[in-house]
Design brief:
adenosylhomocysteinase, Rossmann fold, hydrolase, 16 strands, EC 3.13.2.1, binds 1,4-dihydronicotinamide adenine dinucleotide, 21 helices, alpha/beta, 2 domains, one-carbon metabolism, 44% helix, adenosylhomocysteinase activity, eight-stranded mixed beta sheet
Length: 535
Amino acid sequence: APTQDDPLVKDMGLAEFGRKELTLAEHEMPGLMAARKEFGPSQPFKGMNINGSLHMTIQTGVLIETLAALGAKVRWCSCNIFSTQDHAAAAIAKAGTSTVFAWKGETLPEYWWCTEQMMTVPGADGCDQLVDDGGDATLLIHKGKEFEEKFAKDGSLPDPSSTTNAEFKCILQLLRDSIQVDKTKYTRMAAKCKGVSEEMLRVLGVLGTGCQDFGAVSESAEETTTGVHRLREMAAKGELLFPAINVNDCRFFCFVLVILVFTENRASRNTLLPGKQQQQDCVTKSKFDNVYGCRHSLPDSIMRATDVMIGGKRALVAGYGDVGKGCAFAMRGAGARVLITEIDPICALQACMEGFQVVTLEECVGEVDIFTSATGNFKIITLEHMKKMKNNAIVCNIGHFDNEIAMEDLEKCPGVKVENIKPQVDRFVFPDGHGVIVLASGRLVNLGCATGHPSFVMSCSFTNQVLAQLDILENCTKAKNYKNDVYLLPKKLDEKVAALHLPSLGASMTKLSKEQADYIGVPVEGPFKPASRLK
Ligand code: NAI
């Protein structure tokens, strides 16, 4: 596709509304605003292109404008066909500092077109650094280079008919068209990109297969569920094209931390270690975004989509991990009687101790009013389950891919008719007359039917993104300190980012005395807990 200099959004007329909400969000995102104050004057990203694929929401708008305030030229697209807030996209596009290609309700071909436009920098080979959520942009670069090399070797072009998966078909078609116009576009892009900060590495699982297996991946969704592991495998095999910082595992509040740590002690930037050498999770991520973000946005999205009274209903949450815990408490808070399904006995016992009933889907499927899948696994709510649900049962997914719910089976099921109630709300009617209401086509309900996580939680996450980008700048762009491996931000940033968000909540912290610190064996300034202990 020809490169677009101009942004493409749904309606520029929404820009004024978007700007008002961006201004409100800035107040709720103290980490990002602290980054602007701290790093803005020195313009660390001056002259650089930083491109991103991440839900084009108001909160992301504050991230984009923070990167721009630090000197970057930014191109952006959404990482989900439904998650764009059109007023946010319009406001960012109108400001003129960043180029946006995103609108709510993109088709799959449009989605991949936007992704390619985001990555194609006019007058340059590509971006210097990448922000990615879900790995689609990273995937496209890797696959593009792989197919270009294959074309150079044997003249063969990507074949969209080699896969039944609609999304992979789009990617293959896009790359087929691209190679016919420019045989080395993605190879140059890969060489130009010095590193990626990745919100969610899961989808990168598809990268672990060779070109010839690309089609087969679509038949085997397991391939997409082991992303971090596969990414590390790729790094070990030398297939990863640039270093990746996994912001997901150590992020939310890390941003403010980064600001302080990086400015107070610039050497700390070099303390990042390959992920496998560090803790596997980040408290300010998993215990904040996943729990409190979803606790806020699950009932919000169900109410906006259906206006249904949650109180008194039976609500089932599949998976009692961090997201499931937030969802279960929110549904209980709204007055629902909550049921949990789990495969892990520890999480199941935790659910019991909180007074939730742990069940299998099979034993209660006909009695539940609202189903929420929160597992990150697939094939959780099957066609057989939906056939047995009560009339107008609500089905949604807040986990990861739309394959938590058997959407393809439902859409292809003979005799099933679909009534579109309103955008992102569909009632699938079975031949016996009963229907199930599926939200956001089985994709993330809190992004599709509401506005995702609130600004304050996202401030933590995006502060980490900025820190990661600064880290890539120091260690990948200016120097070559990192290998093509997966890195995490250090544990201490966790506490720092949290600390930076406390003042706006009016919290007063107790100061550890030297005597007390020695007694419990921690430094006075932290970290206060071992990395392995999630608190
Ligand atoms: P987690 O690993 O803490 O929890 C998932 C839980 O699901 C685990 O306890 C696991 O035992 C359980 N599980 C797995 N297979 C199951 C099955 N067949 N039936 C019942 N339970 C099963 O992960 P976390 O942090 O709760 O995240 C879950 C998903 O939510 C991930 O895919 C994550 O990417 C996504 N997520 C979505 C967000 C959103 O805004 N929608 C925000 C944060 C995470």
